[in-house]
Amino acid sequence: MLRAMEKLQRERDEARTQEKWHFDNYVFAQEECLKLREQRDRLAEELEKRDKLAKALKMVRDADNDCHSDGFQTIPPAIRHEIDEALAAAKGKNA
Hints:
Largest sheet: none
Order of helices and strands: HH
Helix content: over 70%
Number of domains: 1
Low-confidence stretches: none
Mean pLDDT: 88
Number of strands: 0
Distance between the termini: 73 Å
Strand content: under 5%
């Protein structure tokens, strides 16, 4: 009888251990999902900022083109080159 009780207790302990293991894995998975969601949201914000910056740079470039065609002073070539490079890089990342 004592052995049967010990066996039953051992089985219960193993079941509790397994339940705790499953629960711990579930909690870990939920934490990882939360981290991934936060990372996804930050990435979406960064992409939105990049797109807004690209639009602003396009506006600056277009205004500079208009100034050039109207004979007004334009952005210095080195700065204009940086704007063009940034726009090309943003366009390449959107593809």
